[in-house]
Design goal:
With about 450 residues, the chain is α/β, with parallel strands linked by helices. It folds into 2 domains: about 140 residues, Alpha-Beta Complex (Aspartate Aminotransferase, domain 1), CATH 3.90.1150.10; about 270 residues, Type I PLP-dependent aspartate aminotransferase-like (Major domain) (Aspartate Aminotransferase, domain 2), CATH 3.40.640. It contains 14 helices and 16 strands. The strands form 3 sheets. It has a 7-stranded mixed beta sheet, sandwiched between helices. Strands 11, 12, 13, 15 and 16 form a 5-stranded antiparallel beta sheet that branches. The protein has a 4-stranded mixed beta sheet with strand order 1-2-3-14. It is globular, with a radius of gyration of 22 Å.
Length: about 450
């Protein structure tokens, strides 16, 4: 907190309490206490307004700061670019926009086009609009339905909430947009059928096909899924699932939209989560880790086949994709993304993510032997979850207040972890971890040791 006096901080806190409306927070408690104010970050660590140091195990609380805090090379890249050209509307091109698109597509065989926006929600909205316009251009408007999965999350706009599989996230915001249809989740730990392993994975995929047949394949335009369900509980789909999903989409001519807003840019140990499963998506949406939070950026990536559906010589002036994202024209985002990608490559962060993820998962699995309250440890790369249950046999979830108590105790120890909250009724019982891809063995052990102590304190 160099250069910030105690009086300055007191003013900041009062200004925040008086004027800032925080995300996902009930403000009533601030009448008697202060909000957390984060003032500085370096590497894996941040400092609050009181000077307290924390190791950040969730990369900015929402899985974003993939390469860690304080990267001067990204700040320099942004500064140099915005002094030269800070913005021009996306109807024209810019140097960083072209260069980042080229570099991104080089890592995505089968994909070819990048549409710029400024957030994950907006990137997903663009894909939904593309699906709807394709339905009108090619199918008389009929093939317009978009399927989404229970427990998945795709954004906070009315459109993306309409494709939201987390009931508590959409409560009180209806009526939602029509034409979005849920398919069953693929969470083997809470299996809907008396099956396991590959048999469960195939059955969960077949449940998607059942929805398609019920709705009518000629009405379904796209299937939108996270490669690994994120806020709904860090759910890694079982073996056999993704292969069948791809087959089903191919069979019924349904566009496959993979939402990589969380998993993309190295979070799971590969550039994109879908790479683990050999998928051939038609849309891939990215945000969060694309620039590690140094600048706002979201992208909708498509195949040339999708792009060509909007490119024709017809005289109808409505045939092209009639969309604009004002701040998709900011050059800071792609400039930051280019340097972010270089850091991931040059520092070997994909390999580090795989190694540190394996260490962290082993540590979390080790907690099962010590704490009966741990029902399941799961994840891929540096994206992991620990599900807490009151009874391992019945899998009864622990109350959400106990999850909050664990998170609070870790924070008191100087470790910021995450948790599912106000998402899935009765099932907000998962601790979540997404450390920066730069994490060291000591970082990983400090995080899991703090969870060990917190579980002992909260549950005895």
């Amino acid at each position: 907190m160099d250069g910030v006096t105690e009086n300055d901080i007191s003013h900041v806190i009062e200004a925040d309490k008086a004027h800032v409306w925080h995300h996902l927070v009930q403000h009533k408690p601030f009448e008697a206490g202060d909000p957390r104010i984060i003032v500085e970050g370096k590497g894996m660590r941040v400092w609050d307004a009181t000077g307290k140091e924390y190791i950040d195990a969730v990369s900015g609380a929402v899985w974003t700061v993939n390469v860690g805090y304080g990267r001067t090379s990204i700040a320099d890249a942004i500064r140099d670019q915005i002094v030269k050209l800070n913005y021009f509307a996306g109807a024209a091109g810019t140097v960083p926009g072209a260069i980042f698109a080229e570099k991104l597509i080089a890592k995505m065989p089968g994909m070819s086009r990048v549409y710029y926006a400024n957030s994950g929600s907006e990137a997903n909205e663009k894909a939904f609009k593309m699906v709807r316009q394709i339905a009108h251009k090619r199918y008389g408007g009929k093939k317009h339905k978009i399927l989404y999965r229970e427990r998945d999350y795709h954004g906070g706009t009315i459109g993306t909430m309409s494709a939201g599989g987390q009931t508590e996230r959409v409560m009180q915001y209806g009526p939602l947009a029509p034409g979005f249809v849920a398919v069953p989740h693929a969470m083997e730990y809470r299996a809907q059928w008396d099956l396991s392993g590959e048999a469960y994975g195939e059955r969960a995929a077949e449940a998607i096909e059942e929805v398609i047949l019920r709705e009518g394949p000629d009405t379904v335009g796209a299937l939108c899924l996270e490669p690994i369900t994120a806020g709904g509980g860090v759910i890694v789909p079982p073996v056999g699932y993704w292969q069948r999903v791809q087959e089903i989409c191919d069979r019924y001519d349904i566009l496959l939209h993979i939402d990589e807003v969380v998993c993309g840019m190295g979070r799971t140990g590969t550039w994109f989560g879908y790479e683990h499963y050999g998928l051939r998506p038609d849309f891939v949406t990215l945000a969060k880790g694309v620039a590690s939070g140094y600048a706002a950026i979201g992208v909708t990536v498509t195949t040339e086949k999708v792009f060509d559906m909007f490119k024709d010589d017809a005289t109808d002036p409505l045939n092209h994709f009639r969309d604009i994202s004002t701040f998709g024209g900011c050059t800071a985002g792609p400039a930051a993304a280019i340097e972010n990608m270089r850091i991931i490559e040059d520092e070997g962060l994909l390999d580090n993510t795989t190694a540190m993820g394996a260490r962290m998962l082993a540590n979390l699995e080790g907690l099962m032997d010590k704490h009966r309250v741990v029902g399941d440890a799961r994840g891929k790369g540096l994206f992991l979850g620990l599900e807490l249950v009151a009874d391992r046999t019945t899998k009864e979830p622990v109350p959400e207040k106990d999850i909050a108590a664990v998170v609070a105790d870790c924070a008191a120890q100087g470790v910021i972890i995450g948790a599912s909250n106000r998402s899935v009724p009765g099932l907000n019982n998962v601790l979540m971890f997404a450390p920066a891809l730069i994490a060291t063995p000591d970082d990983i052990d400090q995080i899991t040791d703090s969870v060990d102590r917190a579980l002992s304190k909260v549950f005895g």
